[in-house]
Amino acid sequence: MVIKNISLINYRNIEKMDIELSEGINLLYGNNAQGKTNILEAIYMCASGRSMRTHISKEIIKFGKESAHIQLIVDKGVYRDKINIHIKKNNKKGIAVNNIPVKSINELFGTVNIVFFSPSDLMLIKEGPSYRRRYVDIELCQLSRIYADNLSRYYKILKERNTLLKDEKADDMTLDVYDSQLVEYGKKIIEDRNRFINEIGLRADIIHSEISSGERLEIKYLPNVSEKNYEKKMYECRKKDIFYKSTSVGIHRDDISFNINGINARDYGSQGQHRTICLSLKLAEVEFIKEKTGYSPILLLDDVLSELDRKRQLYIFNSIKNIQTVITSTGIDEFAENIKENIKIFYIKNGSIEISEKKALK
Q1: N or C: which end of the chain has fewer CB within 10 A?
Q2: Which of 245, 151, 252, 136 is nearest to 194 (CA)?
Q3: What's the pLDDT at 52?
Q4: Which residues of the chain are in CATH 1.20.1050.90 domains?
Q5: Cα separation of 279 and 128, whole Å?
Q6: pLDDT tens digit string along 57-85?
Q7: Which DSSP string corresponds to 47-110?
Q8: Can you give the pTM of this predicted structure?
């Protein structure tokens, strides 16, 4: 799976841009606030239907314009897919795949698979549980539209149940209906999350051991409730939920833990260890997605090399030789030290491509 072309119109500070990407490494470099990350954001939107930087779609539109447009063409060997996203100033967003409108974002998932790594991901261990749940859900939604549908249904029912609790109209009969549906979808989500954490954890442990000279990484799924006692816990907490007007039990309170040599990394790990965990996770995702789909995902690295030491940088470069990669950076010096093969270089300035060339760095 490779992105052949991405076109942007009135996207943030980009008035018009058309990029032909290489199947290997693509470097977007230039000063800060020139539009490099905007290009990665647009690719991310084509994979997930949403931005990783804002929940308000209209913020993406270039100042003074009425709409923005993204077109991405992805090659999957025997066929190509074309994704179009049109964003209007009234915050409405239209998505089409091969000129067929997408009614739900769930229908978009899997059209193009990406692994995105940015400096904010280095806080995965230190941030709260919602950040880690979001990480798991994004990866699973890319791989399974069934998971995406179950997750969407769960949160819709959860929202309705909480609204009922806040309106003080909750009665046992109505809550029984909501609870049975939450349990139905929640159990499926627990099963999928547990399988994903186990599989990604095994791969991340191997990578982590290689980077850290033998330190073992254990990733644990910490469900708020087990499949076996889900119904029982929902019923036991009903009075508390009515009093606090919120649902206290369910997959929306799950978490993940990261242990290095048996010690909790969140509380006792160094910043360097946190970086190594995140890097191991991202590279494990690449392997996992390739195994599950048969295609290598597109790897997006948003100015993370400056956050990593030379050993970790070298590990990344040795791992991405056969993967289409789009990297943003403020310069090319660190690449000259680490990359000896041809890469495609784009110099970005004021939302435009100033230079586009393919060359070897030596």
Answers
A1: C
A2: 136
A3: 86
A4: 124-293
A5: 19
A6: 888 999 999 999 999 999 988 889 999 99
A7: HHSS-SS-S-GGGGBPTT-SEEEEEEEEE-SS-EEEEEEEEETTS-EEEEETTEEPSSGGGTTT
A8: 0.90
pLDDT of residue 362: 54
* CB-based contact 262:186 (threshold 8 Å): no
pLDDT in tens, 142-200: 999 999 999 999 999 999 999 999 987 778 899 999 999 999 999 999 999 999 999 99
Q: Which residue has the tokens 């708020």?
A: 224
298-314: string of b/e by CB count within 10 Å (b at 16+)? bbbbbbbbebbeeebbe
Q: Which residue in this structure is represented by tokens 């360097």?
A: 272
Q: Which fold has domain 124-293?
A: Glutathione S-transferase Yfyf (Class Pi); Chain A, domain 2 (1.20.1050)
Rounded to whole angstroms, the Cα distance separating 115 from 316 reads 13
SS3 194: helix
CB of 125 closer than 8 Å to CB of 265: yes
pLDDT in tens, 119-142: 888 778 888 999 999 999 999 999
Q: Domain 1-113+295-362 falls in which CATH fold?
A: Rossmann fold (3.40.50)
